[in-house]
Amino acid sequence: MAKILVYNNDTNRMETYYRGESEAMPYITGRTLTVREFRGSSNSPTLWTSKRTMQAWNAQRYLWGMPIPVGFAFKRPWEGGHSNQSQHYAGVAFDVAQTLSNSQRTALRNSARSSGVWSYVEPVSLTPTWVHFDKRALSSACPTGGFPLVRRGSRGMYTLIAQDDLNTLGYRTRWSRWSFRS
Ligand SMILES: [Zn+2]
């Protein structure tokens, strides 16, 4: 059973869900994205994402019209990914289509780009054997941007990354109502 924290962009509040690995992620249409698919290889007992990320998935899945195989989505900073600045740490990024053909990946990448639902779709030069799309908070490209400023009173998934890091380093994070403990 995973604890899933979802930042609701409409209400500016955090929501907490408990879901089995084969159940759908919160806000997901049908079972097009399960908890197991979202966590990929992550062993974290707590996962986080945002409502608008799940809604973007729903739109992309609807446009594609077929299952989208997910290789990786959520990661903690020490679980690998794209160096030390990754939108996967915020639970807003997907690495998909590893098992599809090159032409299928190209079609999906084009679909993701033209859909307008994602903040960023990585070019084929950076992701030749998968497709990366994400719903980052800012629009600038990896690795120099896309992360908002986190400070006292901040809410959302980016706050959870900072709290996760601080807790792991032995600090108790009391500066937010939504203290995270692994
Ligand atoms: Zn990625």
Structure, described:
This protein is an alpha+beta fold. It has one domain: Muramoyl-pentapeptide Carboxypeptidase, domain 2. The protein is built from four helices and seven strands. Strands 4-5-7-6 form a four-stranded antiparallel β-sheet. The protein has a three-stranded mixed β-sheet with strand order 2-1-3. α2 (51-64) crosses α3. Mean pLDDT is 88; it is low at 175-182. It binds zinc ion. Residues 82, 88, 93, 95, 132 line the site of zinc ion.
TL;DR of this structure?
This protein is an alpha+beta fold. It has a single domain (2-168), classed as Muramoyl-pentapeptide Carboxypeptidase, domain 2 (2-Layer Sandwich), CATH 3.30.1380.
Strand order of the largest sheet: 4-5-7-6
Q: Please trace the helix and strand order, writing H or E for each element.
A: EEHEHEEHEEH
Looking at the structure, the CATH topology is Muramoyl-pentapeptide Carboxypeptidase, domain 2
Q: How many beta-strand runs?
A: 7
**Strand-residue fraction?**
15-25%
- State the CATH architecture: 2-Layer Sandwich
| CATH class wording | Alpha Beta
How many individual helices?
A: 4
